[in-house]
Write a structure and sequence with these properties.
With 424 residues, the chain is an all-alpha fold. Helices cover 67% and strands 1% of the residues. It has a two-stranded antiparallel sheet. It starts with 5 loop residues before the first helix and ends in a 10-residue tail after the last helix.
Length: 424
C-alpha cells in the first residue's frame, strides 16, 4: 500500500488492525488444535483430561490477561525494565473517558492474549495421563503470572524489554517466549511429577491418530496468524513470514520422516504431524529474517534433530509424555540460534539495528545474543516452574495416585469417558 495522505495512513491503520483481529482468531484456534493434537496421542481413558488442560488454559489465562496480564507484559510504565505495570481491565486502551476504545491497541492486546494462552497449553503435554486438573489450573495461573508475563515483557516489548531492546535478540513470534519457555516448564513438571506407571519406550500408542492429524492441521492453519500476524501490519515482512511458515514445516515433515524411516524402518503419520510442528516451532523466531531457502534448510534440520531428540527422555530418564521438550524446547533453540548463522541483515531496512549474522555480517555477535536470550528464558522458566510444581505437589498434590492413573484419569478426575459406547 502506497501512502500519500493522512487519510491513507488512517486507512492503513484500520487495515493493520483488521489483520491483527483476524490473526488473533487464527492463533486462538491453535489452542483447540493443541487439545486435538495432544488428545489423540494419549490413551483413550485420558483424552478428556488432556483436552481439558488446554481448554482450562484458555479460560483462566484469558481472564488473567484482561485483568492484569496485558499491563505486566506491555504496560505503559516499566518496573526497572523487567516488567510492566498492571493495566487493570485494559483501562489505558479504553480512552480517557473510558468510553473510546483504541482500535489498534485493543487489537494488539487481543492478539497477544492468544500467545499467553497457547504457551500455557503447550506445557500440559509433558504431564499427560497423570495430573490433577485443579492442581494444573493453580500451576497455570501462577506460572503465567510470574513467568510468562515477565518473559513476554522482556522479549516482545520492543521499547523496554531487556532481551528485545537491550540485547537486540530477534524473536519475531516467540521462539524463546513461547516455545523455549513452555519446553523448559514442561521439563520441570515432568521431573516433579515423575514417570508414569510402566514408563518405557512404546508403553502406549496414540489412541486416535486422526485426532492428532486434525490437531496438527489446525495448528499449521493457525500458525499463519501466529507468525505473519506478529508483524502487526500488512506488508512485505508479513508476507515473508507467511511464506516461511509454509516452507519450513513442509521441509521439517520430510526431514522427520527420513529420520524415522532410517531409524525405525517406517515413516508414520504421527511422525509427519510431529515433524510439521517441529518446523513450525523452529521458524517462529526467524520467519521475518530468513530467506525462504534458509527457511527450508532450517525445517529439514529441525525435523531431523527433533526426531532424534524425542528419544532423549528414555536415555536421560525423564517422562515427557508427548515430547514437549524434544519438539518445543529443542525446536525453539534451533530456530533461535539459526538467526545468528543465516539471518539476513537489517530486515526492515533500518541499518542502525545490529542484526549481524555470521553469513551476512561475518560476525558472531547476533549468534551470541540469541544464545544468551534463549539461555535466560530457559533457566528462568525451568527454575520457577520446578519451584511452583514442587510446592503444589508437596501441599495439595499435583499427581494422581497410581491406582487412579491405571484406572484412567478421565473417569477419576472428570467423571466422563471420551468414548461412552452403549452396549445392547
Amino acid at each position: 500500500m502506497v501512502l500519500h495522505t493522512a487519510a491513507d495512513y488512517a486507512e492503513a491503520g484500520t487495515v493493520n488492525a483488521l489483520w491483527l483481529l483476524v490473526a488473533a482468531a487464527l492463533v486462538l484456534l491453535m489452542t483447540p488444535g493443541v487439545a486435538f493434537f495432544y488428545g489423540g496421542m494419549v490413551r483413550a481413558k485420558s483424552v478428556i483430561s488432556m483436552m481439558m488442560m488446554s481448554f482450562g488454559a484458555m479460560a483462566l489465562v484469558g481472564v488473567l490477561w484482561v485483568v492484569y496480564g496485558y499491563g505486566l507484559s506491555f504496560g505503559p510504565e516499566s518496573i526497572k525494565g523487567l516488567l510492566g505495570t498492571p493495566d487493570w481491565f485494559l483501562g489505558s486502551l479504553m480512552g480517557k473517558d473510558g468510553l473510546t476504545p483504541d482500535l489498534g491497541g485493543l487489537a494488539f492486546a487481543g492478539f497477544q492474549a492468544t500467545f499467553a494462552i497457547i504457551t500455557v497449553a503447550l506445557i500440559s503435554g509433558a504431564i499427560a495421563d497423570r495430573a490433577k486438573f485443579g492442581s494444573w489450573m493453580i500451576f497455570a495461573g501462577i506460572w503465567v503470572t510470574v513467568v510468562y508475563f515477565p518473559v513476554a515483557y522482556w522479549v516482545f516489548n520492543l521499547s523496554n524489554g531487556w532481551i528485545a531492546a537491550g540485547l537486540h535478540v530477534n524473536d519475531f513470534a516467540g521462539g524463546t517466549a513461547v516455545h523455549i519457555n513452555a519446553g523448559a516448564a514442561g521439563l520441570a513438571l515432568a521431573l516433579v511429577l515423575g514417570k508414569r506407571v510402566g514408563f518405557q519406550k512404546g508403553m502406549s500408542k496414540p489412541h486416535n491418530v486422526p485426532l492428532t492429524l486434525l490437531g496438527a492441521a489446525l495448528l499449521w492453519f493457525g500458525w499463519f496468524g501466529f507468525n505473519a500476524g506478529s508483524e502487526a501490519a500488512v506488508d512485505g515482512v508479513a508476507a515473508l513470514a507467511w511464506v516461511n511458515t509454509l516452507a519450513a514445516p513442509a521441509a521439517a515433515t520430510i526431514g522427520w520422516l527420513i529420520v524415522e524411516k532410517l531409524k525405525d524402518g517406517k515413516p508414520t503419520s504421527i511422525g509427519a504431524a510431529s515433524g510439521a510442528v517441529a518446523g513450525l516451532v523452529a521458524i517462529t523466531p526467524a520467519c521475518n529474517i530468513l530467506t525462504p531457502g534458509w527457511a527450508i534448510l532450517l525445517g529439514v534440520v529441525a525435523g531431523a534433530v527433533c526426531a532424534l531428540a524425542i528419544d532423549l527422555k528414555f536415555k536421560l530418564g525423564f517422562d515427557d509424555s508427548l515430547d514437549v521438550v524434544g519438539i518445543h524446547l529443542v525446536g525453539g533453540i534451533i530456530g533461535t540460534l539459526w538467526i545468528g548463522f543465516f539471518g539476513f541483515t537489517h530486515v526492515d531496512g533500518d541499518a542502525s539495528k545490529p542484526f549481524s549474522s555470521l553469513l551476512y555480517g561475518g560476525s558472531f555477535q547476533q549468534l551470541g545474543v540469541q544464545a544468551l536470550g534463549a539461555a535466560a528464558v530457559l533457566i528462568y522458566s525451568f527454575v520457577l516452574a520446578y519451584a511452583i510444581g514442587w510446592a503444589i505437589q508437596k501441599t495439595i498434590g499435583f499427581r494422581i495416585n497410581n491406582e487412579d492413573e491405571l484406572a484412567g484419569v478421565d473417569t477419576v478426575v472428570h467423571g466422563e469417558e471420551g468414548y461412552a459406547l452403549e452396549t445392547v
